[in-house]
Amino acid sequence: MGSMIKVVVDAMGGDNAPEAPIKGAVDALDEISNLSIVLAGRTDDINRELGKYTYDKERISIVHADDVIGFDEPPVMAIRKKKNSSIVTGMNLVKHGDADAFVSAGSTGAILVGGQFVVGRIKGVERSPLAPLIPTAKGPALLIDCGANVDAKASHLVQFAKMGSIYMKYVAGVKNPRVAIVNIGAEEEKGNALVKATYPLLKECTDINFIGSIEARDIPKGDADVIVCEAFVGNVILKLYEGLASTLMSKIKEGLMSTVRSKMGAVLIKPALKKTLKQFDTSEQGGAPLLGLNGLVVKAHGSSGSLEIKQAIKQCLQFGEEKINEKIKENLTIE
Amino acid sequence: MGSMIKVVVDAMGGDNAPEAPIKGAVDALDEISNLSIVLAGRTDDINRELGKYTYDKERISIVHADDVIGFDEPPVMAIRKKKNSSIVTGMNLVKHGDADAFVSAGSTGAILVGGQFVVGRIKGVERSPLAPLIPTAKGPALLIDCGANVDAKASHLVQFAKMGSIYMKYVAGVKNPRVAIVNIGAEEEKGNALVKATYPLLKECTDINFIGSIEARDIPKGDADVIVCEAFVGNVILKLYEGLASTLMSKIKEGLMSTVRSKMGAVLIKPALKKTLKQFDTSEQGGAPLLGLNGLVVKAHGSSGSLEIKQAIKQCLQFGEEKINEKIKENLTIE
User: Fold this and answer.
1) Which residues from B are below 8 Å from A261, CB to CB?
2) Engineering a disulfide at B98: which of A271, A309, B93, B188 sits with its beta carbon 3.0 to 4.6 angstroms away?
3) Which residue has the higher pLDDT, B264 or A217?
4) Which residues of chain B have a CB within 8 Å of the CB of A243?
5) What is the pLDDT of residues B19-51, one digit of tens each?
6) Across all residues in chain B, what is the average pLDDT?
């Protein structure tokens, strides 16, 4: 086991707070001996939930935060005004080196803004991308960037490629991760101005395994491990993944209920179908790291249960033990 | 029935040429009395195929074209050099007013380039978008633009919205089609520079039913009839639709074969499942019109069979009878 890793968990963030984050934290502590947890949020609520469990009291602490940032609040304003929110309070611990990582299932916008303005970027990192894992036929791939920073430059995308490659190698354990840029054709001369400017720069990078363009059609097949794009396109890909899978499933269910024969079949296939669909559920892939910050911030899905929170905490452990930020610093300063 | 409509069919285009385009043309003639067909391609090949059928010889003719443009040829070069190709020959008929429309299952790139440079744009139309129909839970929606013209301007997107709205109203028969712009959030202030510039212009249009932003997640639900975006994003949406649906399906089939119980169920659900999946197959939605040209060009899927070609020809009929281009001209010149 490595040295102790301290993770702050936003006790108030997400649809199932405070129950899910607190149970997730307790379960993670149970499994991992070199982990300590700080719960950020309303002390009364946290203590009431904690009372339901037995856990190692030495490794858990509470930092009180009165406010909660809601999903519908304008992020910049919320981060600026709600200094006593669980998000700002938790992030401040990471900023000041009092914790290694921050996990929240709260407002994506607030987490992105807080990451930039509270935690702050590593010197030399121009933008900090949100990089969720998405399911593919060959296992999860990192989609980088899906954040709120639209209208990116080529230099940003090159940094995304490097950070994403480090993450997939050391956190996801993929040897020599295949890095590709989202494009509308396989050839180098295809693409919009941004892709055309970025492609030759990626080709020159000796520290990543750049395999060229990837068309959106080939993303679900698993043709790349790190999928580089600017945030607008990343957002479209991530959300279409969610939307199309869920619409397709409800259509299939409708179809299965359409005849007596298919209804009988539906009963028989249910367990196998459920298992398959779980593999292709974007919310099952763990939290999305916000990379390139002075500390790690992980955004868990808003609908996370305790299991998802526990997984997100485990991700932080790997991130800390592998000293990902040290590797990012080394890699982004070498030209 | 209206006046005669003359459609040129690329007899050499697509994976199943010349069989599929020729059978599709013959079948369309059979069904539609005010249709006449010109088959563009190698006369010998065409005559051999035509020999298999009986049809109204008065309403079918051949224009000889020696060359064929392949799927892997660089489009601009191919259109410039292969003046005797079925695509250039067929498009020239439309350009000179000798035919109303051109249907091809050939190279998308060549069709896009040929549309611009051979057929030419309607005066006042800045760009001619490729606008395929995509399946949604509430029926097909028009995704405009999925062409090759990346890095669009706000004024282009406004024209796409207007042309798409006219198409859905008169060809697809949707009353007061809901027009939305693809965005990464529902609020007006969200988006990249292009979307932020386009949004207020769309709001000002009194001739379309602009309903605001649509997130990619909500496209498959059928929340809009005309989905406006620039071509790079449109391409990503279209191809991810194809790729994700096909990967998901092969995963589901794999899952169904995983246990004895599910195998038995699979036999029972097969007919119902097939029907559902067909509704969600992008290649089942008919050809994609290239709008804003001096005549209609319809791109059928490369893998089209005779049924898809017949459908694409029928689309042209509707387009001609409803005088869509007249409506586009009127609409895009009024400010």
Assistant:
1) 268-269, 271-272
2) B93
3) A217
4) 215-221
5) 999 999 999 999 999 999 999 999 999 999 999
6) 92
Region of residue A255 (left: phi > 0; alpha: psi -120 to 50; beta: else)? alpha
Q: Contact A256/A262 with Cβ under 8 angstroms?
A: yes
Strands B226-228 and B141-144: parallel
| Residue A102: its H or E element | strand A101-104
Q: Do B248 and A245 touch (CB under 8 A)?
A: yes
> Between A and B, how many residue pairs show a Cβ–Cβ distance under 8 A?
194
Judged by CB atoms closer than 8 Å, whether chains meet at A272 and B264 is answered as no
DSSP A161-228: HHHHHHHHHHTS--SSPEEEEEESSSSTT-S-HHHHHHHHHHHH-SSSEEEEEEEGGGTTTT--SEEE
What is the per-residue DSSP string for B21-60?
HHHHHHHHHHH-TTEEEEEEE-HHHHHHHHTTS---GGGE
Contact B259 A242 (CB under 8 A): no
Res A279: pLDDT: 76
Does pLDDT of A305 surpass 80? yes
pLDDT tens track for A240-299:
998 988 888 888 888 888 888 888 888 888 887 887 777 777 666 778 999 999 999 999
Interface contact B216-A236, CB threshold 8 A: yes
CA distance B257 to chain A (A): 9
Q: Give the DSSP H or E segment for A141.
A: strand A141-144
Tokens of B165: 């709205």
Residue B2's φ and ψ, nearest 5 degrees, are: -85, -165
| pTM of the predicted model as reported, rounded to 2 decimal places | 0.91
Facing residues of B63 across strands? B40
In Å, how far from its chain's centre is CA A333? 24
Interface test with A, best of B73, B181, B184 (most A CBs within 10 A): B184
CB contact under 8 A, B137 and A269: no
Residues of chain B contacting A233 with CB distance shorter than 8 Å: 232-233, 236
Whole-number Å distance between alpha carbons of A306 and A154: 38
Among A221-225, B135-139, B147-151, B157-161, the least confident range: B147-151
The ipTM is 0.90
The pLDDT of residue A335 is above 70: no
pLDDT of residue A2: 63
For A86, the token pair is 């669980």
Span between the terminal Cα atoms of chain A, in Å: 34
